[in-house]
Amino acid sequence: MLHRHLTHQQFTLAAIDDIIARGRRQDWAELRKAALADRTVLEKILRVCQVYVADPYAQRYHFWKAYAERYLLAQRGTNEGNI
Question: Measured between alpha carbons, how far is 18 from 8 in angstroms, rounded to an integer?
Answer without folding.
Answer: 13
